[in-house]
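Problem statement: downstream parser choked on a complex file, so we are re-checking the raw output for the MGD run. The parser issue turned out to be on our end (a line-ending mismatch), but while we're here, posting the original submission so the record is complete.
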Amino acid sequence: MEQGLLPVIKKYGNDSVALYLGNPCAHTMASATYIRTLAKSLNTKNMYSSSTVDQIPKHASCGLLFGSPLTLPIPDIDRTNYLLMLGANPFASNGSLCTAPDFPGRLRNLHKRGGKLVVIDPCRTKTAHQADEHHFIRPGTDALFLFSLVHVIFREDLVSLGKLADHVLGVEGVRTASEAFSPEAVSDHCRIGKDVIYRIARELAGADKAAVYGRMGTSVVRFGTLANWLVDVLNVLTGNLDREGGAMFSMPAHMPSGGPSKGKGFKTGRWKSRVKGFPEVMGEFPAATLADEMETPGEGQVRAMLTIAANPVVSTPNSNRLDKALADLDFMVSIDFYLNESTRHAHVILPPASPLSHSHYDFFFYGMSVRNIVNFSPSVVPRNELEMDKWEIMARLASIFSGMGAGADPKAIDDFVIQYMVNSAFPDGESKTPGHSRETILSMLEKYEGPERILDFLLRTGPHGDGFGSSPEGLSLDKLLLYPHGIDLGPLKSRIPEILKTASGKIELAPEEILSDVKRLQSFMEKPPESQRVLISRRHLRSNNSWFHNIPKLVKGKNRCTLQIHPDDAAELGLNDGGRARVSSVAGEVTVPVEITADIMKGVVSIPHGWGHDRPGISMKVASKNPGVNSNILADENQTDKLSGNAVLNGIPVSIAAIKESGGK
Ligand SMILES: Nc1nc2c(c(=O)[nH]1)N[C@H]1C(S)=C(S)[C@@H](COP(=O)(O)OP(=O)(O)OC[C@H]3O[C@@H](n4cnc5c(=O)[nH]c(N)nc54)[C@H](O)[C@@H]3O)O[C@H]1N2
Ligand SMILES: Nc1nc2c(c(=O)[nH]1)N[C@H]1C(S)=C(S)[C@@H](COP(=O)(O)OP(=O)(O)OC[C@H]3O[C@@H](n4cnc5c(=O)[nH]c(N)nc54)[C@H](O)[C@@H]3O)O[C@H]1N2
Ligand SMILES: [Mo]
């Protein structure tokens, strides 16, 4: 591997190696603690991740609103009385950017305590079935719908900032921006009646505890950042942000809190992508432009690739193009368990040890948890001698990139990382505990290594930590181990203004970047409402993106990879339930079994993502038997959300034709 990657770097420079981080990177301690080190050692501008086919619009809008892209408001679902949910299906996904064990049960409790759940989704999902109210919406038009709620709230004088009043700038800017977006103007685009919009706006503003929550359906669309911004604009204008039962901020035990309620603010576009000039967002370029960067010759062309827990051939737009581009790379390395659609292009695959042999702490998910909790799960099976822990693989790669060679001891990198963290946390050389030098602190951390040592350090310096002795009752990893079921640190508490890191120290409700994109939305609204059939995605409880299909129990039963279509559309197109259809878009074409259902709105069809396990060279016996089709063959990589570069995976214009089956059954 060293022999494959280093010559590429030597000849073409660091930017010629792309790093792609897949979704499971958010679920391992190793990535939470070592990706930064690895990325720094590689020092490439070509950073990509599944965030740009997922939630980057939320990060971008929250970055602009609150000053940090990781400051995400979480709907306080346990205490709210009114939840407006757009484009999320927690009955399948168990929630996203909102960590809540048994999300469905918590929604049922909302209903039981007399609260109301309103779901906006082009599909009558299981969540929608359980809701008090559901409305179909034309995919991609949530920003219009949300803007019209804002419009009504201003027009009817329903703005009530409450205790936020001293902490918000830009209310008038939002008022002006919302003027054009009346319910009358958006209704035909969204396919939601104007009376319904007026009523929802009034109910939302009138509820004593309400929250607006949007997920995939508001994100992987062409106005993703605007829609995500508007979700929080509504939370602010109704006084529900940072209020019990509204949308609140978690306080993870491993992250520092407090400090000045001001910061540098958030910027995108500190550098741009080479081929299409996409601004970086959180140091990343859009997955949608990865193939451009690989195929386009010139200085900085991507010629090698490192993927960690990612399957971009299945998960990103225009899969066929990316598939070819990966095949043409000089060298590719993948850290993954599976030889799948993407890793089949790798020259070297580094399989990490079993997840059960890794300990676990949810670094990312406690930052968006509906209660502040802390839990650590030690590994349950020992690691085989020949296997490597995930952090060791990453540390070894970092050694290679930083010129120390593959043979360097990962422990040396580990020591370096913890020293760096201790030095940065205590720049004056002393901790809060008098007499504790950095060296003393390092020696107090000696019991653990790798991610566990980093966790111990972060817990001890966090808001509930033992401060290495200054608060002896406080948290440390030792203490946490005494609680095998974790510790519940209680419901979310108000965090404004301490959490704000904008330059003004206020919530910047009408950032320039956002307002400039409102014009794009307005021109879309001024055109006649679209009527072409569009494709969206869906999730299933027994699937997880692209990688649960090789497990017999999770794929047994009837084929789930179908084209769902409304009966009227099916009749018009001559499609039969169980028959097959050809679905085509500007990017490609797939053939898929038809499932007719009135649970999807007219003019919209859906295919689940994550399938298509029939490419040559993959080695997944069970998945290959029931491969399904890769819906991202149809996604057009040229369609992105302007501000964040996020791919448009919902609302893809498609044509559909029945396939006449020849011969008998
Ligand atoms: N079982 C299971 N759980 C998962 C996953 C999985 O694959 N399987 N994946 C995990 C991951 S990585 C994520 S990011 C989360 C995602 O979590 P969710 O966002 O809750 O999951 P989805 O099922 O994608 O829900 C998106 C909903 O948006 C709707 N939709 C599509 N287009 C639009 C639109 O334009 N507007 C509106 N309002 N709605 C629209 C779809 O019909 C769908 O019901 O789930 C996580 N949990
Ligand atoms: N059309 C459409 N496309 C979508 C979506 C959609 O709704 N519609 N959803 C998008 C979303 S939200 C996401 S998050 C992306 C996900 O897209 P990706 O992150 O690219 O893909 P996954 O299917 O999650 O694949 C994860 C890979 O990680 C491996 N893996 C699992 N655990 C580990 C581990 O601990 N370590 C290592 N090294 N490898 C591991 C698995 O074997 C698998 O190969 O897909 C996106 N693509
Ligand atoms: Mo995701």
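For whoever reads this later: The chain has a mean pLDDT of 96.
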